[in-house]
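Question (not urgent): is this output format expected?
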Amino acid sequence: MSLAVGLMSGTSLDGIDAALIDSDGDAEVRPVAFDSHPYDPAFRARLRALLGGRAAAPELAGEIAAVELALTERHTAAVRGLLATAGAAPGEIAVVGFHGQTLLHAPEVRRTWQIGDGALLAQQLGIPVVNDFRSADVAAGGEGAPFAPLFHQALIASTLPDPSERPVAVLNLGGVGNVTWIGSASQPPIAFDTGPGNALIDDWCAKHAALTCDLDGALALAGRADAAALAVLMSHPYFARPAPKSLDRDAFDPAAVSGLSVSDGAATLTEFTAASVAAALPLLPSPPRRWLVTGGGRKNPAIMLALRARLGAAVESLEAVGWDGDALEAQAFAYLALRSRAGLPLSLPTTTGVALPTAGGQLHLPEI
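Got this back:
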């Protein structure tokens, strides 16, 4: 067992999640501490301006370098704050798993790009750092996402050991939605991105209501989903693709809701998130008995209501089985960093579509 820190800055662009776990990188995982560090609005806007194809523009190279430095320094502060909270010294930490911020995810052209200076983070902390988790998978023909399923499998095995409680689906609703299906102990996990999570809703709220998100689902609950707009959104070819599959944050064009009121637009985009999850059911080996929801989407009552109406099974937040849904993604990258250092696979054919179980990550050692 070793102490490891995981850092996650997701597609929702809300900030840095930092988690400390004690784990063997295999079957044993014990949460130790968790902290969250929101981005200020100005920095969030700078990140948002770099996403997708815009990041490849030559004139943005200087801004990308400046943002990467600022991002790394914020992660350094997040780790130091977490260790202070936990009463742990840097010398006690085996490794830091540094996901970085995804600017572009395009596995169809063998490209995934996360910024974040792993070497600088290792030097500033005096702790080994693993970053660049997804590139090896994408280079080997995988989707490069989702990347938490092996961690989900380990937690389900320890938390719900009774086979009669399975299959279980772990649904992560960050900026993008992804699902991990976990069956019997002999079955590998099945995973893929389901569609939008919170990103379209957040962007709608920022543009039309000067809000960072639809807090408590208030806008959606006050509106009514537009069936015609939803049908246009669900006609996207992504939903006809077989799994495994993955998405970029900005894969969907929200133009179908552009003529709706603020509340009806929020309601329609909320329904889009739920409908895309329901569209995943035919791609799973069998219907889950229970859906455990993590990420920011679990805090949105409108999303949870829409999921319950469509999935025909119990839909609960991850806290129902004793996990911290805010900490889960950061914990996963601490776990994956330990696996990376041990040379263990981070992805499987059933989770990313890679041909063989694939290790990955780039190790940075601090200079002594």
